[in-house]
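Appendix C: a fully annotated inverse folding record. The material below is reproduced so that readers can follow the format used throughout the book. The structure is listed first as tokens, followed by the designed sequence.
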């Protein structure tokens, strides 16, 4: 990753003035943030957090109320329309609703920004062909948007956004209207845009799975502020803010919620421990070996291991069988290599704050392995999300 920031927010704020009955809204509230050239940067937050306003500051669709936004070395504050147009020419954008022109064919949509930029016809046609090839819909050139699937429409949106060779691509909820499979295809395409074309990609989302799948770094927004920033893997493995822990929980769903834990205790009266699986522990082999060497027999009763930023991550809940001393020694040993939450036994349960406060609280009744759709609770992302791969509950 190149260290030079291509986008810098410096104490940037955007305040929408109130009216007679409405209070003012601090949509972006003192954000300081650097996005490096060449990275895929995610901005995640719940609805109303200020994500769209934040990205709209990058291409000056909104102007800062105070502070500054610097793009490619140019401070946008107070810049005139002519200079802004130059900056905007280096930024492509795609949207949740695709925003295609219904009266134009696929090729016509992709050609549109080239016409605006006054490219000669011959070059335009060659460029459109090249772009449609890149996004994999060359065969749809003469089709109208209404005849395309959502995934195909977003490919057109991406081709159009790339037409004039931008250095930055902004994607505002670009996959939120798509099913999980199509979401992955579009995210893979955005990865190619980043890796093969060297374009910096900023992805706005409220789905932690999107971050998990393709972002290098991520900023978490709440009430207009960035509450946490870091490498995607760090954010997943050590979420600090409560809102971040909720997002992580909805994506991984690897730890039992309070309700699930109650059921687990009925079925598994022995000692339950949640053991973190990460890059270091890697697989369960070393963990089970540590336990068995100390005379403790483990059974997996819940959990999941998935990938975050291409590295293994998750947790497994074990029921441990063995003498109290053996279990205590084995748990102490495991703690030296990974996170271990001791949940106690059915008779002597222990409360683990990290389960109750962050992760479990976020998904009451919405655990991957509970009956889906029984709760009216809103899940961030709204749509179905992939659960962890690997192990599931019920080794009994
Ligand atoms: N033009 C505007 N005038 C007044 N208030 C606005 C305007 N645009 C956004 N807001 C307010 O600013 C806040 C942040 O909105 P924004 O659209 O940036 O959030 P978001 O994180 O993108 O949400 P979502 O996930 O729903 O798209 C909200 O309270 C919103 O109502
Ligand atoms: Mg938005």
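Designed amino acids, in order:
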């Amino acid at each position: 990753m190149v260290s030079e920031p291509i986008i810098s927010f410096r104490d940037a704020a955007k305040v929408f003035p109130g009216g007679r009955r409405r209070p003012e809204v601090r949509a972006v509230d003192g954000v300081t943030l650097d996005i490096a050239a060449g990275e895929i940067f995610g901005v995640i937050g719940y609805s109303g957090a200020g994500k769209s306003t934040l990205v709209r500051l990058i291409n000056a669709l909104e102007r800062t109320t105070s502070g500054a936004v610097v793009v490619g070395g140019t401070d946008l504050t107070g810049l005139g329309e002519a200079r802004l147009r130059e900056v905007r020419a280096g930024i492509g954008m795609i949207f949740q609703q695709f925003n295609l022109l219904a009266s134009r064919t696929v090729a016509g949509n992709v050609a549109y920004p080239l016409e605006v930029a006054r490219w000669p016809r011959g070059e335009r046609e060659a460029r459109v062909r090249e772009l449609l090839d890149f996004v994999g819909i060359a065969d749809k050139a003469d089709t109208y948007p209404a005849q395309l699937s959502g995934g195909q429409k977003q490919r057109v949106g991406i081709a159009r956004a790339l037409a004039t060779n931008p250095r930055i691509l902004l994607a505002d909820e670009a996959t939120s209207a798509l099913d999980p499979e199509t979401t992955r295809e579009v995210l893979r395409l955005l990865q190619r845009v980043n890796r093969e074309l060297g374009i910096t990609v900023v992805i706005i989302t409220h789905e932690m799975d999107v971050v998990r799948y393709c972002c290098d770094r991520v900023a978490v927004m709440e009430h207009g502020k960035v509450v946490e920033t870091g490498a995607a893997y760090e954010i997943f493995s050590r979420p600090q803010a409560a809102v971040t822990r909720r997002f992580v929980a909805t994506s991984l769903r690897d730890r039992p919620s309070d309700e699930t834990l109650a059921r687990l205790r009925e079925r598994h009266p022995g000692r339950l421990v949640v053991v973190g699986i990460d890059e270091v522990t890697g697989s369960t082999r070393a963990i089970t070996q540590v336990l068995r060497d100390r005379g403790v027999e483990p059974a997996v009763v819940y959990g999941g291991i998935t990938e975050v930023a291409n590295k293994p991550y998750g947790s497994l809940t074990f029921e441990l069988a063995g003498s109290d001393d053996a279990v205590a020694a084995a748990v102490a040993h495991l703690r030296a290599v990974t996170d271990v939450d001791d949940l106690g036994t059915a008779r002597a349960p222990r409360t683990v704050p990290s389960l109750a406060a962050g992760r479990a609280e976020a998904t009451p009744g919405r655990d991957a392995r509970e009956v889906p759709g029984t709760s009216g609770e809103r899940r961030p992302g709204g749509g179905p999300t992939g659960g962890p791969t690997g192990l599931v509950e019920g080794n009994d």
